[in-house]
Amino acid sequence: MNSVNTTITSEVTQPDEVAVPVQESKPAETIIEEGKTVGKPYSDDPKFKLRDVEVFYGDAPAIKKISLDIGRNEVIAFIGPSGCGKSTFLRCLNRMNDSIHICRVKGSLQLDDHDIYDPKRDVVELRARVGMVFQKPNPFPKSIYDNVAYGPRIHGLANRKSDLDEIVENSLRKAGLWEEVKDRLDANATGMSGGQQQRLCIARAIAVSPEVVLMDEPCSALDPIATAKVEELIAELSESYTIVIVTHSMQQAARVSHRTAYFHLGHLVEVNETNKVFTSPEHELTESYITGRFG
Amino acid sequence: MPTKKDEVYGDHISHKFNNELMELKTEFLKMGGMVESQVENAIQALVDGDGHLADEIRANDKKVDRMEVEIDEEATLIIARRQPTARDLRLVISVIKMVADLERVGDEAKKIAKLAIKLQEEGQALRGYVEVRHIGTHVLSMLHDALDAFARLDSEQALRIMKEDKRVDEEYQAAARTLLTFMMEDTRNISRCMSVMWVLRALERVGDHACNIAENVIFMVKGEDVRHTPVEEAEKVVGR
Q1: Model pLDDT, residue B240
Q2: CA nearest to B210, candidates B148, B135, B146
Q3: Please, are residues B64 and B133 in contact by the beta-carbon 8 Å criterion?
Q4: Average pLDDT over residues A59-85
Q5: A3, A15, A291 ranked by CB distance to B85: nearest
Q6: A24/B4 Cβ within 8 A
Q7: Residue in A18, A25, A294 closest to B5 by CB
């Protein structure tokens, strides 16, 4: 009888025996094309329409011809290595870069079809519409109540004390902080925990009824529980606000955002649905970054 | 020295992470090799009527089962520790699914070994062994190629395996018809022919599992799930 062995190959290829048909990795710079972003950078219902945006610090370019839409009620996360320009780009959205004298912004940046950088635009009004939360919680050294009431007061949003009380309560509720602080609204905000302070800052930002909330690494100074609370809050807020979040935590971007934008050396390399970015990104550089191959 | 293929999973900032992924791949291939020789030996035991070899296969199946648990554990730890993304995530997820396929292939080998013992004890004339050898050779080469495609990250080879599966199904149908004729010729053949039929069925299943592994390889390489899609769709994915 013939043996089956004559026709059956039995050795399994071991990992170090084979050459593999994969492309050699190219240096990062050679695979970025200026002004070209892979994926889905545009939106059907844009809140922000940003075209060919360039930012310079003096003569040095920090952002190179970025075009992107940010959709209404969308949570979009900006990720990328340090110094890639994601915070600089975020700060263009409510003209926070105006305070840096050597900073120049070029290109077209529109919020609801109106130019953000129109010289006639009231920047205070812009920043009320586009609020911001920073990396480090920065409550005013005032009471919890006054921290939240500060914005509505200077913008004249409440005529009576009862209206102001309502705004403060609503904002604190939305920020998930009301139950924790309702009995000590007069206490100084600086005595709160880091997580509470950050949620207070979010309450303060939303007290003036903004349309957009920009968050620049809002959880990097918080412990995991406070982080989870802020992330929960982002999900709730996304029902009524557009949220742009810069984060160094890729897991956070994966958890909270609808779309993720990957920045690299001032370029916007890829924008895609977050689920796609974290399972099968289109661009080699995005893949390298999110899998921890360079940082 | 690391090969080009190693770089695909091997250039993380964390060397330990590199090693963990490499280890996962190596263990999977080791299990694949083990399962491959289980099937090969099972066919051998059947055609040679070798009861000792059949017993050995049944004992070895426990080792295969243990490997499945170990690899699953390793993969779970990588997810817990590293939160892998993109191609790393696809590797880990695919390995978790593919070890289940390998374990099932091991079970099929055990099933064939049991039938080999039964047929040996019945000691009747050899009918249907030509078909067993033929289909056995076919599915074993599919399994081998699927593991090879995994080792090489070769989606084109994986696609070829997916196409092969249809041919195995056809061969199985043809063999079943032949056995049916034997049974109709002489009813005393029925019990024995049924046993051989079960062997063929087990081999056909091995082909299905090889095909599942191939689908996972395409997912690993291309990031697209081609399960339950027509081969033409898979062709498009691989061609991208």
Answers
A1: 84
A2: B146
A3: no
A4: 95
A5: A291
A6: yes
A7: A18
Query: In this structure, what CATH number is given to the domain that contains residue B165?
Result: 1.20.58.220
pTM to 2 decimals? Answer: 0.82
Mutant choice from B41, B83, B85, B154 vs A, greatest count of A C-beta within 10 A: B85
Residues in B closer than 8 angstroms to A279, CB to CB, are 85-86, 89-90, 223
What residue spans define the domains of chain A?
40-139+211-290
Task: Report yes or no on B7 lying in a domain.
Answer: no
Residue A73 has pLDDT above 80, yes or no: yes
In chain A, pLDDT over 70 holds for what percent of residues? Answer: 89
**Would you say residue B5 has pLDDT above 60?**
no
| Cα distance between residue A269 and residue A42, in whole Å | 14
State residue B7's pLDDT score.
Answer: 60
The predicted-structure confidence for B161-182, as pLDDT tens digits, reads as follows 999 999 999 999 999 999 999 8
Nearest one of A78, A50, A25 to A246, comparing CA atoms: A78
Q: CA angle B68-B72-B78, nearest 5°?
A: 150
Q: What percent of chain B has pLDDT over 90?
A: 85
**Domain A40-139+211-290 CATH (choose: 3.40.50.1820, 3.30.450.20, 3.30.70.2190, 3.40.50.300):** 3.40.50.300
The total of structural domains in chain B comes to 1
DSSP A173-225: HHTT-HHHHTT-TTSBGGGS-HHHHHHHHHHHHHTT--SEEEEESTTTTS-HH
> Are the C-beta atoms of residues A287 and A277 closer than 8 Å to each other?
no
How high is the mean pLDDT of chain B?
A: 93
**Residue B128 domain boundaries:** 12-239
